Amino acid sequence: MAIVLDAFASYVGDLLKQVAQDELTLLLGVSSEIASLHERLNSLKDYLADAERRRITDQSVQGWVRKLKDVMYDVTDILDLCHLKAMQRGGVGSSAPPVNISCLDSLLFCLRNPLFAHDIGSCIKALNARHDAICKSAAAFSFLKLEAYEDMAVPRRPSAADRKTDPVLERSAVVGEKIEEDTRTLVKMLTNGKNKKQNAVVVVAVVGTGGIGKTTLAKKVFNDEAIKEAFDKKIWLSVTQDVNEVELLRTAIRSVSVGGASDGRESNKSLLVPTLVDAIRDKRFFLVLDDAWSDRAWSGLLKVPFSHGAADSRVLVTTRHDAVARGMQAMHPLHHVDKLCPPDAWSLLKKQVVSSEMEEVEIDETLKDIGMEIIDKCGGLPLAVKVMGGLLCKKERRRADWEKILHDSIWSVPQMPDELNYTIYLSYQDLHPCLKQCFLHYSLLPKNVDFFIDTVTSMWISEGFLHGETDDLEQLGEECYKELIYRNLIEPNAEYAGEWVSTMHDVVRSFAQHLARDEALVISSRDEISRGALKPHKFLRLSIETDDLQPNDEFGWKIIQGQKSLRTLILVGELKINPGDSLITLSSLRTLHIENANCTSTLVESLHQLKHLRYISLKCGDITRLPENIGKMRFLQYLGLVCENLDRLPNSIVKLGQLRYLDLSGTSITSIPRGFCGLTSLRTLYGFPTQVDGDWCSLQELGPLAQLWVLGLSNLENVPAISFAAKARLGEKAHLSYLMLECSSRLGEDGFVEDENGVPAEEQRQIEEVFNALTPPLCIESIEISGHFGEQLPRWMMSRVAGAYERLSMVIMDDLACCNQLPDGLCRLLSLYYFQLTHAPAIKRVGPEFLTILPSSSQLRQAHAFPRLKRMNLIGMVEWEEWEWDQQLNSVHAMPALEELVIKNCKLRRLPPGLSSQATALTSLYLRNIQQLNSVESFASLVKLEVYDNPNLESITSLNRLQKLVIDGCPKMRILEGVPELLRLELKDLDMEELPGYLLQSVSPRHLVLDCSLEMLTAISTGESGPEWNKLSRVQHVKAYADQGDNERRWHVLYTRDPYRFETNIGISSSSSSGGKSTL
Fold this sequence. Notes:
By secondary structure, this protein is an alpha/beta fold. Among the domains are: 5-141; 176-336, Rossmann fold (3-Layer(aba) Sandwich), CATH 3.40.50; 342-429, Helicase, Ruva Protein, domain 3; 737-922; 1005-1080, no CATH class. The protein is 31% helix and 17% strand. It contains 32 helices and 40 strands. It has a 24-stranded mixed beta sheet, with helices on both faces. A 5-stranded parallel beta sheet has the order 2-3-4-1-5. Helix 1 packs across helix 4. The longest helix is centred in the N-terminal third of the chain and has 30 residues, at 59-88. It is globular. The relative contact order is 0.05. Residues 21-29, 91-104, 148-163 and 1069-1080 have low confidence and may be disordered. It holds the Pfam family NB-ARC. It comes from Oryza sativa. Residues 11-90 form the Disease resistance N-terminal domain.
């Protein structure tokens, strides 16, 4: 991406300002040059915002801006080298933070070294001469003095979204009757009628310009109930402009395979295609190809394997071009998406700006006239309206503020490039300069890789986009990330909880990459590599994704190492490394992210020669060691390692005093060097191994690390005494928000203690004391405990003590080999919203203490136990038989906010009455392999119930709001009643000899999905003359299936009551009737 001029100038100016003070008068011949450099840059500062704005459409200004940036880049390199030289010779402490480094001290030391001073002095004089010429030429452009940001921090925290799409529908993007009408039309086209070409798949196309809502419409169709009923399999493939064929095949296989399995590492198309054929064979599928830029993905890759599906399968493609739809032989007429009508556009805008009906009424009365004029400028594009809403929601709801946006001069900029959308441009210009840099950088991230928020923000910090107080950089990065979401410039990925991963719409991505085109290049296909996209230009930032390379492709490191000006390199996928290849030529590199590449030791050994490097992320299975002299990389701030064969750290890592992030959890490292305690800049530390050597324990190295926000400890069974654990001083870490405490597992594959003699009592007592000593601070927000093998959990999770953790919102416990009782303090946690317990074989009973709040002299009696708990998972408590929670257990009510409950693999005899009577918000219940459970009853709020492999379950009753029910592997299930709202019933029993009687007596779901034996399906296939017809005839939609060996759902019967339709492939390949009974 192109660095934003005014933000970068402010950063460089801050560095130079430190140098231009005090003792520099002693540095004859250099002080005046440095002061002059700073003064000239400062004199330009007020005009740089205009230069940055005009460079987008004025090539001459773009050239001037590039020259100025080149000078500033060189300045940062020289200041880095000065500081590095000083650190190497003892002039500056190695832990000095990279942004607030004492540039003055560094230069004083370096310039007093005559040889080094001469070289630096010459460089600064040359830079000053270049800068002088640039300043003089600025007069020719008549730059305007625009309002500037003085503070490089984000001015306010948001109060509240790569383009690889998913089928999850964002409700705030849906407005108006038109999209509902279009959805109904498309669903009817896709589900009605027969394919005249019996051996061909029908393709339906949705066509429209970028950002007009094609994907939103496709999502509504994909999630429609009629589509779910009509097809055996639904597959969503995000094609995008730079289609990755291997990833498409992998995703398709995952979507249609049993359990979502696929050959995740296979990259050979010739092997993936037969796998897809086997998975899709004879299945009626609905395939969405979203955002297709050509027909190549269909015609050249997917058409042949998907032709093996059942007749009457359907493909829905969204594309910007009619030619693509015609190339895929789509049905005519093509479905063209219309622009939003003004009322719908206004409704969508309001959804982005206001949050209540009262505010909506207010805005209708005061701002609708201006809003409708703004809407008109958005051209009816939903994406443009959403981005505009993201801009307006940052403004006061006053006419003057909205009129300022309406009359902004950007709307009248002539000759705007096609890649630049006026609305996005206006939103971009409203961003704070440092936020502009973060936004442009996000467009570099490969589209087919999920980057988590901590990785993204670490890149921003390493690039110098975020600077200020070093204690707050991670928090500042998180605020910038959320601000981009709030403005609809990136969107949270619905597949992940919270906002950990986000995506960027193609239109927004194209905009950002166009602005960054002079400095950054994104390559996401082999075609771009083969065209030699790297050769004609020297880039500063390079992002390459090569997952679609084939074994005979010639993409090697030599293509990259010629880019000697690179400051950022992001590489995902394979590349060829030859003897002699190294990183040496990339001497200005700040960020290096390599993933899934054969990053050989030859390449890794040269890492230490990258003096400016701040960020390293290596996700490569073939790396076995890091360079011993990694300690020379004094500026390194972020080190993420997912290298399973890496088993030791170099001793010199303790010299990386500026390191803020270290992740060892993806390695086999079991020891750390002494002196680790010197890494006092660390904020995040994952996978820290516990190691003991005589009277030394690695945990004591954590004591001085007071800035930690995130900490994960492993191998805690190695701690021989509580005195070692206490030296970690966890309770003193005032910033710690996440803590992971882990021991090696004592459980076998069957879920019980692996050693037949159990865990010795002395070892249990020892680990209990160790965990007691690892008391987290009161500011903790998330805790994970894994592998604890004591009988009692830590004291700080008990009763009155736990209540002090007012911020603790997530508790996850796994692999508790000997624990026989749940902690009685969890119920007092006021902020706890997620609790998960897995694999606790010693717990046989959950008593009233789990829910009872004892009175406290220092605190009023709490009104509810678990007052904010929304999700609870209890899994693998294989000996659990009793849960004591009577309706009148005590005066304290429990779990009033609980929405989802999962219970798996236990011997529970019954669900407690208190759960059904007090958990009044419970809407989803999942029960699997509960050996002694015989009934589920009286859950008034339950909407969704899934029961799997419960051998003694006999009855489900009195669930008045239940809409969806799944019964799978429950052979004794005979009674189903009191479910008046039931819409969908899914029933699987391969041993049933007749359909359950309740289908005739007490329930009549609208949709019935049945998996049964071939014998049962054959009986059903006889239709009205068969013995089961009276049980099925009352249901509106029936889909019944039988397997044939490994071929899942090979045989089917499909029935619709009104309008009548009966279809089966039993006996002959297919048989159907419309308007009358099928003939078999």
